[in-house]
Amino acid sequence: MNVVVLSGGTATNSLTSCFSQISVSENRELTYILPISDNGGSTSEILRVVGGPAIGDIRARVAQLVGDPQVGQLLSYRLPNDSVRAKEEWNSIVEGQHSVWKDIPTPVKEMCRAFIIHMQSELLKKTKSANAFRFEKASVGNFFLTGARLFLGSLDATVELLMR
Description:
- This protein has a two-stranded parallel sheet with strand order 1-2.
- The radius of gyration is 16 Å and the shape is globular.
- It has 164 residues and is mostly helical.
- The two termini are 25 Å apart.
- It has helices spanning 16-25, 41-49, 56-65, 69-76, 83-95, 106-126, 140-152, 155-163, and strands at residues 3-6, 30-33.
- The protein contains eight helices and two strands, in the order E-H-E-H-H-H-H-H-H-H.
């Protein structure tokens, strides 16, 4: 018997390591089935400005499952709640100068930045002063996944790329 987890939201994140341990110890395949109906936080902003599907729950699970803890931390990093500081940090992340990149290997950093830059380009095209994107508490992983999805044209390809 394989392990299948039907879930959404952050509640399952704390159980991810338990499911992984069961899967490994029993030599079973582990599959997550996640909704793409999340509308909280930066997901709602991304949906409002760029469109969907919603990726917040997917990002949270991938951040827990990705093999590299530094990449997991990058995907989980949230911008500050202050609008000015959040925008400054976002620009620093886009430019590759932010401390969140400190422990990320250069090839991984530049691959991630390419999709983040693509997301920045989409935000610049789609936002006007009255429709400005609100960066407060936004998840860097949501930006990455959305930028990759827009570039690759597929959420499945984006998740597969990230897991590799």
